[in-house]
Amino acid sequence: MKEADRDEGGAPAPVAREQGDAQVSKAKSGGFGDLGPRVVSALVLTALAVAALIVGGHVFVLFWLIAAFAINWEWQGLIGGERRLARVVTGGVALAVAAGFTQAGETIPGLLVLISLAGVAAILAGPARRLWAFVGLVYAGALVVSVCALRDSPGVGLLAVAWLFALVWGTDVFAYFGGRMIGGPKLWPRISAGKTWSGTITGVLSGAMLGLAVVHFGAAGPTKSLPILLASLVAAALAQVGDLGESMVKRRFGVKDSSQLIPGHGGVMDRLDGFILASLFAALLGAFRGLSSTAAGVFTW
User: Fold this and answer.
1) 41 vs 36, 46, 142, 198, 262, CA distance in Å?
2) 186 phi, psi to nearest 5 deg
3) Are 12 and 5 in contact (CB under 8 A)?
4) Measured CA distances, 294 to 29, 222, 273, 286 (Å)
5) In whole angstroms, what is the distance from residue 209 CA to residue 199 CA?
């Protein structure tokens, strides 16, 4: 059988197509058959994430470092290629070092180590998967570096991550229910069979408003609503883009879920794809503005 007739895990391509067809059929039904496992998993993960956020410090870093480890493990397995175990170990070292530097307030050295070891992972993956292996490790690193930089911001670090939780989770929940209750044209059926324009718009608007509400009620002092609303809209929209981007990668490699670690959601990457882009945007926005801290750059206008 030719290589083109197989998916990246070595399974025949018809199997991947059957998985895709099943996904399309499920999406067309528009029902809530997967709601139970999704709700239970979401409640458990939400409780853990909120607890880590409140405790902060090393507990917070460890929580997100484990998530980044899982994402890199899923990505390196999804893309195939050579020496997967070595790439996962290399990635683990890179992520731990990047997180440690970021928590110590030395983000740039941490990023340099991350990028350097991502290059090593690319070499290990072999010619056909070099770029994919590199991108995957940087992708996982973007999560842990972004959230740690935001949480480590004095005074507003907890608020910044709570804002991200509200807008990303709100976008996800309202997009899910909005798409199934309103229905209508598909957003990009070739990439994501279940996403609709109605769900996407409902999710982005609702998530942005929830984010704004968290900042309004959680900020220690007065805030300017318009720039925070605009930042919330961009972050919520990017959360949807992140979801679509991961769907494109999975389609490229003929898989439905990044793994089966989370019942009802698939893998950690399936759960955090939108959060990664939203947190990266927030961290870059805060860093670009050059104020007293990363999170201050998001909320001080």
Assistant:
1) 9, 8, 24, 25, 7
2) -75, 145
3) yes
4) 44, 19, 22, 4
5) 15
Q: Give the predicted TM-score (pTM) of the model.
A: 0.85
Residues 6-47: tens digit of each pLDDT: 343 344 343 343 444 444 344 344 455 566 777 888 899 999
Could you state, in order of their start, the residue ranges of all structural domains in the chain? 55-152, 156-301
Q: How many helices (H) and strands (E) does the chain have?
A: 11, 2
Separation of first and last alpha carbons in the chain:
60
Q: CA Rg, the chain, in Å?
A: 19
Please tell me the total number of residues recorded for the chain in this structure. 301
Q: Are 208 and 233 in contact (CB under 8 A)?
A: yes
Query: Which contacts (CB < 8 Å, 24+ apart) does range 12-17 have?
Result: 13/254, 15/254, 16/254, 16/255, 17/254
